[in-house]
UniProtKB/TrEMBL annotation:
Lineage of producing organism: Bacteria, Pseudomonadati, Pseudomonadota, Alphaproteobacteria, Hyphomicrobiales
Protein name as it appears in the record: Predicted DNA-binding protein with ?double-wing? structural motif, MmcQ/YjbR family
Pfam families linked to this entry: YjbR
Database matches in Gene3D superfamilies: 3.90.1150.30
Flavoprotein among keywords: no
Gene source species: Pannonibacter indicus
């Protein structure tokens, strides 16, 4: 029953093109070798190889999604309305989406997929092999 309700909520949000926490969690879970923890006052934190690549927070009732970016994406996104350098993480090229409508769900998920790849690429070769990563990342 809970899954049906979450699915119906996701379908409603899909029509508006905005991500929900449920769709975010489902997408992140579909990426290779990910782990999920709830920390920092209920934030949904996704990791690959023990390293964070995306965070959905709901502090003070306002949802926000933070994710790792390439240098070019960071430059571009930090100038867009509804996005800003992520608090505490900006120096590491993280962006925070603080207005969910500023990016479509498809665009957000493309950036999260890229974040996963960026973080996975920084893992040791041995750890990437243990996790079964490498083939889709252009890594050996």
């Amino acid at each position: 029953m809970a899954n049906k309700k979450a699915h119906e909520e996701h379908i409603g949000e899909e029509a508006s093109g905005r991500a929900t926490r449920a769709s975010y969690d489902s997408f992140c879970a579909s990426l290779s070798a990910t782990t999920h923890v709830i920390q920092w006052e209920g934030a949904s934190v996704w990791k690959v190889g023990g390293k964070i690549f995306a965070i959905w927070s709901d502090w003070k009732g306002t949802p926000a999604v933070s994710f790792k970016c390439s240098d070019m994406a960071y430059q571009m996104l930090s100038e867009q309305p509804g996005l800003a350098p992520a608090p505490y993480l900006a120096r590491a090229k993280w962006i925070q989406l603080h207005e969910l409508g500023a990016l479509s769900e498809a665009d957000l998920f493309a950036y999260i997929r890229a974040a996963h790849s960026l973080v996975a690429a920084k893992l040791t070769r041995k750890l990437r092999q243990e996790l079964g990563l490498g083939l889709g990342l252009g890594l050996g």
